[in-house]
Design a protein that fits this description.
It is built from 9 helices and 19 strands. It is an alpha+beta fold. The protein has an 8-stranded antiparallel sheet with strand order 3-2-1-11-10-9-8-7, with helices on both faces. An 8-stranded antiparallel beta barrel has the order 12-13-14-15-16-17-18-19. α1 runs antiparallel to α8 and α2 (83-96) packs parallel to α4 (175-189). The radius of gyration is 23 Å and the shape is globular. It starts with 22 loop residues before the first helix and ends in a 7-residue tail after the last strand.
Length: 482
């Protein structure tokens, strides 16, 4: 049975949780509410699917902050570059039908693309961001007043720019590369990207909350768009690069798509496997960044405990998004927001999935109050030689959730106070048990990060916030440790 629950949240206060929810649902909602408070986004929405079943959905905050209209499960968000997964899946599906060949010169399908002495560009290059096509730059020919009836018409925005390097030579993220992929899909099928999207993805999977964004005809369920810690932003059209971005969706639809894709229900298993295997450069090296490798659309990496995950994130005016799939545990997680806010959203999505999918025995919550000292490394290259972190820690059971409040002083407090929207506390929840340790998810302005509590004679927390190390030793316990 699919478990779905709507709990509206008031900005800057945790929502009231339903007593009927199981522990994982309650913990996931608590984490989502804490993230909404510190993110600067008026609204967040999330969903987790495990083994083909949606086990939790949660919402926090508002779609219209002025009129206090709450986010619901039906609220549609911009998904930004998560859109690229849909475009890549469509290209592979058409290659399976022999409508496209992902290794053909792109000019076979887009004759208006200029011939380039640097070499031929293929769909495989575009999907892995190794085509040499630049991302958005100041010399784009985009005219916000112009009409671009097709993606072939939008070539005029960027086709004039020289390639940054020969195709296949190196990695350079490019949304225009995916707009070119969309043009190939349109030209090869003699149908719009939107019509292909509807026929190939939306109707077969019954994704009723997903559609191409038309900025002048937005659906009633579309969220307003906001600046982080600020007000609404003007509508901005993204239809000229649809496929790279420009799609509205819900977390439930996104996890349904990811699950179907990984089950081989969209493209053949061999094509799926190839798409989540790192692409290669001309010299044979895998295409990668310092955080993940790149396949055919999907980013390939490991989660906070070393398990294989595939994912894609997105950011655009009025949106931040993540869709992640844990291959060893068969669960998918999606998190969408109506403001751009963090650079490390992958771990956030993975910890939300952990919170929803796992149940922690409440008796293992190490309740009590302590002081702490230790180290906070705000500069990863200059680890302090002496303690520079101090403060207090409180751990308590709250409506079935093992919740932590860290009240810092010293260097960590100074760092938090310097934020655009300073916070006085760091909240965390217990999301998992592992041999010899408990895993808490800390809600920070940079997303959720794991804090590890190691059981034993010297209790404390260790972790990292956006590559900033935290090592806290607890002392002066006012309650017994478990």
């Amino acid at each position: 049975m699919i478990k779905r629950r709507f709990v509206p949240a008031i900005c800057c206060a945790l929502s009231t949780l339903l007593g009927s929810a199981h522990a994982g649902e309650t913990t996931a909602q608590h984490l989502l509410d804490s993230l909404q408070v510190v993110s600067g986004a008026p609204g967040l929405s999330a969903a987790v699917m495990k083994d083909g079943e949606i086990i939790w959905t949660g919402q926090s905050g508002f779609t219209d902050a002025e009129r206090l209209i709450p986010i619901t499960e039906r609220t549609q968000f911009r998904i930004a570059s998560v859109s690229k997964l849909f475009a890549a899946a469509m290209a592979l599906k058409l290659s399976e039908a022999e409508v496209l060949n992902i290794d053909d010169d792109i000019r076979v399908y887009v004759p208006d693309w200029p011939e380039n002495a640097a070499g031929e560009i293929t769909l495989r290059h575009l999907a892995a961001h190794i085509s040499g096509i630049a991302h958005y730059t100041g010399d784009d020919n985009y005219d916000p007043t112009a009409s671009y009836p097709s993606l072939n018409d939008s070539l005029s925005i960027y086709a004039h720019k020289p390639l940054l390097f020969s195709p296949g030579e190196k990695y350079n993220y490019s949304s225009y590369g995916y707009a070119l992929m969309g043009a190939a899909i349109e030209n090869a099928t003699s149908a719009s990207f939107e019509e292909n999207f509807r026929q190939q993805i939306l109707e077969p999977l019954s994704l009723t909350g997903t559609e191409v964004e038309h900025i002048d005809a937005l659906p009633n369920d579309a969220s307003h768009l906001f600046v982080q810690h600020g007000g609404e932003i003007p509508r901005n059209d993204q239809h000229h690069v649809v496929g790279a971005t420009g799609i509205l969706s819900t977390p439930s639809d996104l996890v349904t798509f990811a699950d179907a894709y990984m089950r081989g229900a969209i493209v053949r298993p061999d094509l799926r496997d190839a798409s989540i295997t790192p692409a290669t450069l001309n010299n044979g090296d895998p295409v990668s960044t310092n955080r993940f490798s790149i396949g055919f659309g999907w980013r390939i990496g490991k989660n906070w405990e070393g398990e294989p995950v595939v994912h894609h994130a997105g950011v655009t005016p009025g949106a931040r998004s993540i869709l992640t799939y844990n291959r060893s545990r068969n669960f998918a997680s999606a998190l969408l927001s109506n403001a751009a806010w963090t650079s490390r959203i992958e771990t956030t999505g993975e910890l939300i999935a952990t919170a929803a999918a796992e149940t922690v025995d409440p008796v293992h919550c190490p309740t009590g109050e302590w002081g702490y000292d230790g180290v906070f490394v705000s500069n990863p290259d200059a680890k302090p030689q002496a303690d520079n972190a101090m403060g207090a820690v409180s751990i308590a059971q709250q409506e079935g959730v093992c919740a932590v409040t860290i009240t810092p002083k010293g260097e960590l407090a100074v760092w938090l106070a310097a934020l655009e929207a300073p916070i006085e506390h760091i909240n965390a929840v217990l999301v998992a048990e592992r041999p010899g340790k408990l895993i808490f998810a800390a809600a920070t302005p940079w997303g959720a990060f794991p804090l590890v509590w190691k059981t034993g004679d010297a209790p404390g927390f260790s972790g990292a916030f956006a590559s900033r190390t935290l090592e806290l030793r607890l002392h002066s316990a006012q309650a017994p440790l478990p």
